[in-house]
Amino acid sequence: MGFKEGFFWGGATAANQYEGGYLSGGKGLAIQDVITGGDGRNNIPRRMALKLADGSTKFIDRRGTEVPDGAVPYVDENTYYPSHVATDFYHHYKEDIALFAEMGFKSFRLSINWTRIFPNGDEKEPNEKGLQFYDDIFDEMLKYGIEPQVTIVHFDLPLHLATEYDGWYNRKTIDFYMNYVETIFNRYKNKVKYWLTFNEINFCKDYTNLGITEALSRPDKVAQAVHHLLVAAAKTVIRGHEINPDFMIGMMINYSEIYPEDCNPENMWKRITEKRLRTFYTDVQNKGFYPEWKLIEYKNAGIELKMEEGDLETLKAGTVDYIGFSYYSTSVATVNVDAKRTASNLESAVKNPYLKANDWGWQIDPVGLRIVLNELWDRYHKPLWIVENGLGAIDNVEEDGSIHDPYRIDYMKQHIIEMKKAVDEDGVDLMGYMPWGCIDVVSAGTGEMRKRYGFIYVDMDDDGNGDLHRARKDSFYWYQKVCQSNGEEL
C-alpha cells in the first residue's frame, strides 16, 4: 500500500528560530527577542535581561521566573540574542524555498511572527509591510507547488502583551489574538489551507510562552492562562471555518511515548499520570471538554478557573480538524526518585536502557513513533500529521565543503519505516511528515546553532558569527529521493 497519493512530505521551521529580520519592516519586540543564547550541553541556561526600578540590570532564567516589581525586559546592546538574525529566512526566503522545491517538498511548515503583523499585539490595524512579507513567501511557495502549513503562534508573544497585560493570564489577550487571527485568515484565505493554532501547547507553561509573571510559583495563574489558550484555539477553529469552510485547522502538541519502568502497578499508574500532561490538551481540543480528572485536580489544588458564559460551548464547538504533533524521543515512568535521568525536548526524562541517545541525551526510539500514531488514532480517529521529527547533531564541514550526516539519514529512515507500518498494518490516517529544522535553525531549548537538524547547512555559529551561506548535506539528497518516491526509496 504505502503512503497515500498527495502525502505531504516537507519540513518545519519557526519564525523566532529561523526568520530573523529583527525589527525589520515595522516588526515589534516579541518575548523571544529579549532571550539570550545558551549552552545545552554545559547547562548554561538561556536568560532574559531585566531593567530594575533602581536602574540596575539583572538576568533571569527564561523558564518562569518571578519577575521583580518594576522590572522591564529589554535588549542589552552587549548581549547576543539568537532570534534577531536566526538563520535569516527574512533575506533568504527565495533561495531557501527553491532548495525545498529541489528536494521535492509537497508542503512547508512555518510560523507567522505575531509582532510582524501587530508590533505591540494590541493595535486595531495591522502592519501592512508585515502582511506583504508573508504574501510574498506564500506566493513563492505556491509557485513551486509547495502547500503552506502555518503555525499561528510558535513559542511567541508580543513583549508588550506580557509587560502591560500579564500575557495570557489576562482575558483581553484572547481578543488581541483573535484580531490577529481574523487578520491573517482573511488576508491569506486563498493561499493557506492548513493551519495549526499553538505550537506544542503542552509546553506553553512558562514566561516565554504565556508572558505571565510567577509562572513557577502560581499554578493558578498558569491554569487560567492555559484555559484562555484553549478557548482561543477553539475560537480559531470556529472563526476559520466561517471565513473559509475549506480550512483545515489543527492543534499541535509534543506527544512522546512514556513507558512504565517495569510491571510494578505503581509505575504503570505513574505512566498514566505523566501521560495525562499530554492527553489533557488533546482531549480538550478533540473531545471539546475538560476531562474529569483535571477538574478534580484543580479542585484539590484550590484552583478556581474563571470561565465566561459560553466558554464550555466554545470548546465543544471548536474541536480541531486534525492533530499535528512533534515526536523526537521517549521516556520512562517510575516511582523511583533516584532513577537516572537524561535530557529530552524542553524537559528531562528517565533513561531507557534499551535505547541509544543523541549528543544531547534525547533517546532515539523509532518504534515509539508507531506506538504514538496508533494511540492517537485509536483515541480520536482524526487525521494525524507529524509536523516535527528529527535528529539534533553536530555536523562537520569537510575541506571540500561536503557534509556527511549518515546518523541523520539513519534516524529518519528508521522512523519512516515505522510510519509506514502504522499506515499499512494499523490503518492510521497519516497526512504528512515534516522533519524539524529542514534547514538549520537556532535551537529553541538552548539557543545554540551547533545542535543542527537540517538537510541544509547554514553557516552560523553559537555566537552569531558566519556568512549564512547555504550548503546541501548528504541528507538533502537522501530526502530528495524519499520525497520524489513517496517514501518508497529509503
TrEMBL record:
Q: What Pfam families does the entry give?
A: Glyco_hydro_1
What SUPFAM superfamilies does this protein's entry cite? (Trans)glycosidases
| Gene3D superfamilies reported in the protein's UniProt record | Glycosidases
> Which GO biological process annotations does it have?
carbohydrate catabolic process
**InterPro entries, alphabetically?**
GH, GH_1_N_CS, Glyco_hydro_1
| Segments passing through the bilayer | none
Molecular function (Gene Ontology), one example: beta-glucosidase activity
Any GO CC annotation of this UniProt entry: cytosol
Q: Which family, according to the similarity comment? A: Belongs to the glycosyl hydrolase 1 family.
- Tell me the protein's name: 6-phospho-beta-glucosidase
Q: Which organism is it from?
A: Faecalibacillus faecis
